[in-house]
Structures are given as C-alpha cells and as structure tokens.
Amino acid sequence: MSSKETLFEYGRSIFWASVVSLLLITFVVQAFYIPSGSMRPTLEVRDRILVNKFIYRFKDPERFDIIVFKYPVDPSRKFIKRVIGVGGDKIQIIKGQVYVNDRPLKEDYILTKGYSNYGPVIVPEGNYFVLGDNRNNSEDSRIWGFVPRENIIGQAFLIFWPLNRIRLLNW
C-alpha cells in the first residue's frame, strides 16, 4: 500500500470515528464533570459521570432520578440535581423535612438535614421539582423554580472517574 493510500485510510478512519462519536454524544451517552458540591455525598467535586440521553425518550423522569438539565435561568449552563416532585405533586419543606403530597420523604442520600422551610407548591404538569443532595449548599428549585421537561438532557447513571469512585447511580 502506498503512503498516499495509507494516509487516505487513516483519514477515512478518523472521519468515521468522529461521526460515530458525534452521534453517540448527541443521542446516546455523554460525559459530564461535577464542578460543585451541591450533590454531595452522592457526587463529589471533580467526579466524572455518564448521562443516558435516550432513556427519557421512552419514559418520564421519576422521583429520585438524578438528572442533568439545562438551567432554566440560563440554558447555556448544565445542572445536575435529584428529582423530588413530578407534575401534580404538592411539595413542602418544613424545618428541612421534605413532604411530597403531605407525606414525609425518606431521604437516606442527603448530606445533612436542611434547615429551611419552603412551599407548599404544586408542580405544574410537564415540570419537575429538583433538589441537591447537599441541601444547605445547593441552588435548586427552591430558588429558581421548576425544570421544564424540555430542559432535561438525561439521567446520570455512572460515576466513571476517579477510579476509586466507580459505581452505578439510581440503582
């Protein structure tokens, strides 16, 4: 094989690898970096996660799903939080205890119990109420409101970096 043919083969391989990568990132799975501690202890600062971008084409997000979404105030920014309320749910927080439809929510994943009061509010249909697991250091639906369905990018499902923190999420 001549050097020109070899160069052509390399170029073609790079092209197809780029196309496949672009399709995977756009429609299937995408890696994200965790820049803040708002989801501690579930996600730590500098964790790298994979997000399933196609799952919500087949089902709606559910309570306790960890989702990545476009920040409603500035859609160019991506946030990650836990779904607490879905359309029609009544959400209220009294002395840090979250109530969904007047029932206390059991949350064994939060860092510390919050100290705030909030609501009651009714989650509009097609929207989600999300909270960080580190309630006292999280900017979430208590501050900027609901997440519209169309803002949701996908469901976080795997911490893949650092190696000592590899594990599945939402299982």
From TrEMBL:
InterPro entries: LexA/Signal_pep-like_sf, Pept_S26A_signal_pept_1, Pept_S26A_signal_pept_1_CS, Pept_S26A_signal_pept_1_Lys-AS, Peptidase_S26. GO terms for biological process: signal peptide processing. NCBIfam families: sigpep_I_bact. It comes from the Bacteria. It catalyses: Cleavage of hydrophobic, N-terminal signal or leader sequences from secreted and periplasmic proteins. One of its GO terms (cellular component) is plasma membrane. It is found in: Cell membrane; Membrane. Its main location: membrane. Belongs to the peptidase S26 family. The active site is at residues 38, 81. It comes from Anoxybacter fermentans. This is Signal peptidase I. Pfam families: Peptidase_S26 (PF10502). GO terms for molecular function: serine-type endopeptidase activity; signal peptidase activity. It is a single-pass type II membrane protein. Keywords: Hydrolase, Membrane, Protease, Transmembrane, Transmembrane helix. Residues 8-161 form the Peptidase S26 domain.
